[in-house]
């Protein structure tokens, strides 16, 4: 089922809203900063891609919820959607939810109540509504997977409109986990770079409002883009390592559901974490699923500028891809000097290269721990 996107928003380390983020991304600006959330002395790395919203570098509870609410409110406003409609639902994808708030509760005694951990409270307070909120925690593909669920709910008539959100804030425990998992100590994220060292976390949130194309036309809403399909797979081969076969199935499922051929895809927003396992598996999967088209499609890896925004990353890619389709420019992959062997023939948009773009179909990859994969196909509204 095709879905109309009538509102979109994002908050990232490079911009406080969609327009500032996209402008910064297209300019190749990095959100990399010295670590603010907690003391870096315990770790091997001292950088992250954080949103600069902490006065005096003082961390606080509910930052993830605040970022999510800001993005959702902006998307709803752009969509000109009345939240009094009882047939509206909200689906949020996240990897860590309010884990940082729990860390602050246990380690510093910051006040926190159980109901504050649920996004339903802050979202309905922000929107002045009483909408149902469903939260899914599907690792790094969570927000794209939430978009797949939105398609199901609208298709079966459960909701007339769905507000899809994604968010994650950097947490000390996850930062420490990645610090131990990375075999080397990265000071930045360099997707598909031969000399990449690993991944660093980033703050981020994004949201879109989706509805049927017919309903959007009936209420004379502006169409930002059309979701042709969301392809999914769950391979469960390994706790963290991606499986090429699972990635291929998700890509092909997206093509089949959307009625799109690989050679019709003009832009690919890749997952690109800057880790050897992910980048190699993703490059291999794209070549296997797309054939020769994998070498023609324009490729952009946003995590080179935003870091890994975990559960928000898929939807950050979706919002950025919509902006790219509508503005005719693609953000570059920064820090890409020597492309790794398995991706050497791919058509990356790089710093200083031509980023102008006139395509109509975009693909957004999102791959998560445990092999939970989601691939979104978007079409520019004619």
Automatic annotation (TrEMBL):
Pathway: Lipid metabolism; fatty acid biosynthesis. Pfam families: ketoacyl-synt, Ketoacyl-synt_C. Keywords: Transferase. It comes from the Bacteria. InterPro entries: Beta-ketoacyl_synthase, Ketoacyl_synth_C, Ketoacyl_synth_N, PKS_Beta-ketoAc_synthase_dom, Thiolase-like. Belongs to the thiolase-like superfamily. Beta-ketoacyl-ACP synthases family. This is Beta-ketoacyl synthase N-terminal-like domain-containing protein. It comes from Cupriavidus basilensis.
